[in-house]
Amino acid sequence: MLISLLINPRHRLYVTAACTAVMLFLAGCATMPTAPTASLEEAKSAIRSAEKEDASRYAIAELDEARQKLILADKAVVSEDMILAERLAQESIVTAQLAAARTEAKKAEAVNEEMSRGADALIEEMQRVGDQQ
Amino acid sequence: MNTITIKYARECYRVAGVIVIAVVAAFAVASCVTTPKMASGAAEARDKLTVLQSNSKLADMAPVEIREAEASVLIAEQPVGTDAALSKHRVYMADRKVEIAMANAATRYAESQRAVLSQKRDQVRLDARTREADRAKRQAAESKLATEAARVGAAAAAADAASNKAEMQRQIDLLKAEATDRGLVLTLGDVLFATGRSDLKSGGNGTLDKLVAFLNEYPDRNVAIEGHTDDVGSLEMNQTLSQQRADSVKNYLLQQGIQPRRLLASGMGETQPIADNLSASGRQQNRRVEVIIKNPPSTIPTASTK
């Protein structure tokens, strides 16, 4: 039977066809790109943590851009452009991180301003009291 | 000899030509390699990163982020051939990484300044307290000084009052006034007036001038001026004459600037003699004007008993 499969030209044709089908199937699997799930998840969590830091107040433009990039990345997944999806997800991540970083910077600056204003106010008050003397 | 020289020169030209061609080719190859190297925008990201790295205040604040940014910029700077989308992506990533590094450095720098700021604030607070304490001390000193001054002032005022009193007494003595229930009575003798005349004689004005000085010194004292005559002539005539004499004195005082409301002039006629009218000397004493300097409303009369 096995020998006849190899020897019989008709059988050989079947085997060849089957092999070709399998190979084609495998090849198809190999080129079919998988969605960048990890990057998309990371982008989501980066946006969420920026939101938690109140980025919508201090860096709304960057936060919006990160959200937009994530939406585009999801669209790219739907249209099976996984390379584009991965890039957009990465861009969404860094932009969300930037939103958080700028928010933090602005908050820190505000704290410092408040501190120095407090000192200035005190100085001014002292001078006023001094002038009244 | 000549042919050898020409041959040598030709050889030289050939070598030079080869060198020129080689150099031109090398340049051409080099330009082909360098031209497509950098993605557009990578240079800008590099510039931004360089600015951050050369900022001595910020560069040390975010070393990890700067290293990551550096790596991204290096990737962006790599040639990508014709893949414009990849090039754009890499530049975007590099730019964002640099921006993140900048923001983090700014945050940490701000945080590092807080120690200085709070130190400054503490210093200001300390100064404030010191000044407050100083002020309190100064105020205490000032109020002590004020108390002292008040005490001295009061003493001075008392001394002043005493000296005022003494001064008034001196002036009263000077006027030769007599203290009575009605006040100080100053009698202007008849030397001021001739018999039957009401105009003042010039000689007696020394006494009146003293009176003016006294009234100027004590503006709360009002004055009643009473004219008196002897019994020579009719009652009516003497009444009129005494009134005229009193008015005469009043007018003189008015001329000297004493306010009219302080002065009241009245004629008593011959009704209140202070001596008998029988002798010439008695009549002379009766011809007189009495100026009564009234006691001020609230003061105990200042009496002078000669």
Tell me what you see in this structure.
The complex is a heterodimer of chains A (133) and B (306). With 133 residues, chain A is mostly helical. Chain A is built from six helices and no strands. Chain A has helices at 2-7, 9-31, 37-52, 55-58, 60-78, 82-132. The N and C termini of chain A lie far apart (119 Å). The model of chain A has no long low-confidence stretch (mean pLDDT 85). Chain B is 65% helix and 9% strand. Chain B has two domains: 2-113, no CATH class; 176-294, 2-Layer Sandwich (60s Ribosomal Protein L30, Chain: A). The radius of gyration of chain B is 59 Å and the shape is rod-shaped. A five-stranded mixed β-sheet of chain B has the order 1-2-5-3-4. At the A-B interface, helix 6 of A face helix 5 of B.
List keywords for this structure.
heterodimer; A: 133 residues; mainly alpha; 2 domains; 6 helices; rod-shaped; B: 306 residues; alpha+beta; 60s Ribosomal Protein L30, Chain: A; five-stranded mixed sheet; 9% strand
Biggest sheet record of chain A? none
SSE ordering of chain B: HHHHHEEHEHEHE
Please, how many domains of chain B?
2
What is the CATH fold-level name of the largest domain in chain B?
60s Ribosomal Protein L30, Chain: A
Q: Determine the structural class of chain B based on helices, strands and strand pairing.
A: alpha+beta
Mean pLDDT of chain B: 81
Please report the number of helical segments of chain A: 6
Structural class of the helix and strand makeup of chain A? mainly alpha
The DSSP helix count of chain B reads 8
Which quaternary structure do these chains form? heterodimer
Side-by-side strand order of the widest sheet of chain B = 1-2-5-3-4
Query: Greatest interface and its residue counts?
Result: A-B, 27 and 27 residues
Low-confidence stretches of chain A: none
Shape of chain B: rod-shaped
Number of domains of chain A: 2
> What is the CATH superfamily label of the largest domain in chain B?
OmpA-like domain
